[in-house]
Structures are given as C-alpha cells and as structure tokens.
What does this fold into?
Amino acid sequence: MPASELLASPSNRKGIRFDPRTKLFLLITLCTLILSTDNSGLMLYLKPLLALIPFVLLLLSAKYWAGFLYFVLYVLGFVLELSWGAFGNGVSGFIVLMVSAIITRFTPCVIAAFFLMTTTSVSEFIGSMKKMHITDKITIPLSVVFRFFPTVKEDAGAINDAMKMRGITPKNPMLMLEYRVVPLIISTVKAGEDLSCSALTRGLGAPQKRTNMCDIGFHLWDWLIFGICFCYILIFCFQNQICSLLNL
Amino acid sequence: MIEIENVSFYYQGNEQMGAVNHLSLSIPKGQVVVLCGESGCGKTTVTRLMNGLIPNFYKGDLTGAVRVNGRDITKMPLYEIAENTGSVFQNPRSQFFNVDTDSELSFACENLGYPKDEIVARVRETVKDFKIERLLGKSLFHLSGGEKQMIACASVCVTAPDVMILDEPSSNLDVRHISILAKIIQKWKAQGKTVIISEHRLYYLTHIADRFVCLAKGKKVFDLSADELRKQDTEKLSALGLRTPDIRCLEPEHAGATGKQSLCFEKFRFSYKRQKECLQLENFCVPKNEIIAIIGNNGAAKSTFGRCLCGIEKAGLVRDGDMTLSYKERLKQCYMVMQDVNHQLFTESVMDELLISMKNPDEQQALEILAQLGLSEYAKRHPMSLSGGEKQRVAIATALASDREYIVMDEPTSGLDYKHMKEVALCLKQLKELGKSVFVITHDVELIYHCCTYVVHIEAGKVTNQYAIDKSTHTFLRDYFLLQ
It folds into this structure.
C-alpha cells in the first residue's frame, strides 16, 4: 500500500523552494505572535494578514487543496470569533468562542509546521541544521525520527488490517491500545536496528566534513519572508507606541 | 583479500544463536563466495564480522582476527571500513535513510565528504550501470521491494568499494529481480570486486559463485566449488538445511488437484486511492480444498488479490457451491497469514492468542489445535519470544481456532532455509487435510513443488495462466522460474 510521506521527495515538490531556515523562522514567529496576542487594537487587522502567509506559501508550492481547506477554516473561525456574542452569553456562546479561538490560534501554526515538513527533504534538513551549527548529536536522531513517520504509519496500517481480519475488537480501550502498540513497537525496534546498520556501513558518523548535495541558501523569496517576519516582530514589540502615534 | 583467522564470536545475551566457533576462512581478491547453511548457523554473523558491524554495533565475545587487505578490521571504526566495503541487507524496507532516491544514492559519498562534482559524476555513472534512470527523483516509499533492493545495491556502489557483502539479498525479490541481482553480482565479479553473499537460495548463484562455504553451528562443514556442489547428493544438502542448487532437478511431489473447480471469483476489481486499477479479475474458478500457489512478478497485484479475497479491501464476490460470499462475510470466513507475521499477534501468550480468536473460548479445544501444529510446549510463551517460523504456526493456529475456511498465506517462506520451508509445507498439507482451501502467494518454487497442487499465475492484475500441477504442466512453472 502506498504511504504518504511527511518529508518531501523531489517528485512531490513543485513551485518555489525556500530555505529550511526561512520556514523554521516563519514557524517560530507565527506561533509566538499568534498565540501570545489577543484581537485588540492593531492586532485585529495584522493577525489575519499574518495568517495569510502560510496560505500564500501553500499556493506557491502548488498545494492548492490544503491551501483552500486552510483558508476556509481560518475565515470561518475568524468570523465566528468576532461574532460569538450573537450566540448569547450561555453555554452555546462559550462553545463557539472556544472552538473559534482554537481554530484561529492553532491552525496557522499547524499549517506552517505542515508546510515545513512536507516541503523539506531529509538531506535539506541535515544541511540546514549543519549551517546553523547544531551538533550531529541532535541532527542525526531527529532526522531518523522524521524518516520513521511513514514507516510507523505503514506498520500501523498493517496492524489495523490484521485486527479487522481477525475480527478482534476489544471493548476495553486499554486492551485495544495494548494490542495496537505492542506489535508496533516490536516492528519499529527491528526496523531501527536495520536502518542504523545500513547507515553506519555507509559511513554515517565519519569525522570528515560531510558534503551536502542540496542547494541551501537564501534567495529573494527567503529575504522577503524574513523581512515580513521582522516587521511583525517590531510592530509587536512597539504596538502600544504605534497605537498612540496613530491615535487608535 | 579477506582473512578470518580462528575467530569465535558469541552474541551478548544469546550464546547459541548465530555464534561462530573457531572459524578460519581465507578469500582471495576477486572471488565470489556464497555462505550457506540453516538459519542460525552463523552465516549472517560472518558477514557482520567482515563489514565491521561486529564488534562496532553488535556486542559480544570476540576472539581471533579478521583482516581485510592486511588490516585488522575488528579494531577499525565503521566509517573507515565503509570506504572499501559495501553492505546490502535482507529487508529492502528498512535499509534506506532518505525518503527520495536521489539523496539515497549520494548518501554514502556525502558521509565520506567527497567533493560535490565527484558525487554528481559517480551517481550518474552508477545510475547508468544499473539502468535505474526511471527510478530517479521518486519517493522510496512508492517503490516495490525489488526496486528498493536495486537502489540499495546502487547506493552502496557509488563509493566503488572493493568488497561487497550481501546478507540474504534475494529474500524479498521476485524471479525477474533475482535475475537482475545475479547480473549485478556478475558485473562486480568482472570488475574484480570480492563479493560475499550469505544466502538460502542457491540456484541463481551456481553459475556465478566461485565457492560455496557451508556452516553448521558456527563451524565450517564444507568449502566447495559450484561444480562440486552440484555433484553433491541432494539429501545430504537438505540435511544441512540447504535449498536445491538446481531447480531443474525438482519434480512435483504430489498428484495435482483433481477436484471440480467449484470456488469462483467474480468481479475482483480494485484500485488504491488515486491510482489506476491494479486488479482486474473478471471471472475465474479454482478447485476447492487444495493448496493453490499464486505466482507472478512483484507488483502483479498478488497481495492485493489476497487482501480482496480476505475482505480487507472491498471488492468482488466469491461463490463456493451455492454460497455467495461478499467481502463482509469473507472477513469472517478467510484468514490471512501476513508476510510480516509480527503485525498480527497481539497478546501476551500463545494460549491467549487462540482464545481471543474463538467465538466461544474453549481452552481444551485450543490445546488440541496447538498439539496438531506441534506448538503444545509454547502455550504459555509470549508470541514475540518465538522464532519466525513458530510465529507463523501460531498465526495458522489462530486461523484454525477461529474456524476459517479459506486461508491465505503471503510469502510464508521468504528467507527460510530448507528445514523451515519443509515445515511450512507440512503445515499447509495439514490444513488441506483439515478440509481448508489454502492460497499461497509465493516466489518460492521449492515450496510449490513440495506442497502445492494448483497454480494461478497473475500478471498486471490479470490471470494469465492456471493449471493443476502434474508431470506435464510443471514445465510451465519451471520455465517461469528460470525466466524462459
């Protein structure tokens, strides 16, 4: 069965390519600003604009379907968040507020992370971590973890099929979890051992400087994203001053 | 030149399994040597001694010296050994580090810090050598097992090592890919590389290999040339756990299926999400209560057929006499023993495994089933502590416990030695005697000759041939497996 992968391969990568560091910086800026501000003052206008960036990036990378879904979800959440009062002050109003606040705060972050993961290959990831002078002790285990997501997904699918085929549906949720997780751990441990052997016998961990085949570097688009992020950070830091200047 | 000098090795925590005992072996440059012997005889251990995984990765008790080109590699770090030794492993699924083929091919060179231009040139040359242009730029998760193994061989070749070490490389390959693998090994031989292959399947190597070294319990039993090996008595080879060196000599052991073709498949059409239809079986019938081999190349949709038959995928109807089974009913009537049997055993003991399969748990009946399959002594053991073959039998026992009529086995003998293959064959025959209809998806011609009575050949989602195995039809089989 074909498994969809989290990390990109060249065949599913279209459109403009960004440096992984740009994507990481965008993710951090986005999460910090969107999660740490409310909808008062300037932020009411600036936050939706910020949330628009991952949407544009998805379109530029030819991920139209994901972009469309995100757009609809965010707009819906944003409109609900502004108009929750219409649902009354009772439980229904509260639920609308809660759901819409979660949508507007978390979806942009999740989408930015999705964008980072689906458009970066393992090789690019290792290359950019090297450029940021992060030690191999962190980079290599992390890259192995990424490499494992699709494998775990395949295994989980096979286990699911086996349970369906054997007609095993325990009522007890703990038992259900046990039945799924134990075989998964066993096959993952085995795959991890094989993977380490194959990587080590191909010289992973050699002390000489590792060559990296992918082009990592900042281009026009990267500078643009960096510029926007910096502007946002500045506005965020000085928002009170800006508000009083504009008499808002 | 590889010299193994009086080497003994015992794995930490498991003294018996795969141990090597005072072994000496000398392999001159440019030789192709096959290591063979039954499972656990130490042949994989010998390959690990040569590529440095012992003692660098697998810990244990090591004495003696292993010298490659005069240097003792038991004292070298893995990345230094990696410069002139390449290793290919058994499981194509878990030996790639990257997600895309291009990065995977340049991976070894990148690690060793070669300059960029040189890596590009080497990758280009290797791709041409292996004729794998069409695999470039693809996700490794979308390749078949055979294609993955090609990439694994190629990704090792880019650094142009002198010594190639292959650990059961053909286990997951179909006939066509085995012949490609054989050609690759031949090319390496012509280039003067030393090649060491640990393998159960011998037939594809008899015209390439210079020597066959057989091990038993960590000791050398014989060291013969290919010609000498062919002259050996087959029974003697079987006793050592070896597969036949020449599949031309095989003869069907049983009378073929004679029954009426009363099990019919209708409208087995299936496509995976967003892909074109891979299974297109309109109508075909096979005899009931037989052992039916399903053969065909990788990607012919044999496994998909198995999944549809078991009702895991929603497709088609099965008519058994006047019964009509939809996929929902087949989920209750069919049982699949998966290729990776680890995925289908869930509980803490073999006994529990049987009890949860039964409609009305009955310990007495469970014990009877275990006794039938020779598993009585394992009733209290954790399924995961058993060997691969034993796990397979436990899975079959759960199929019996759940009282299923149709049993599908997906590649039950990949990577098994003669003895274990024979055990699987025996088990299948028992199932037949119990009145079950058994379907075996397999690339193992010896298994077919040992127990199957009927063959269905599937290519590109369609049945291209089907026949009962007897003296006249078994030439079809032989021709298919010899690629004629």
Q: What stands out?
A: Chain B touches chain A through 73 residues (CB under 8 Å). Residues 122 and 412 of chain B are 39 Å apart (CA to CA). DSSP finds 17 helices and 20 strands in chain B.
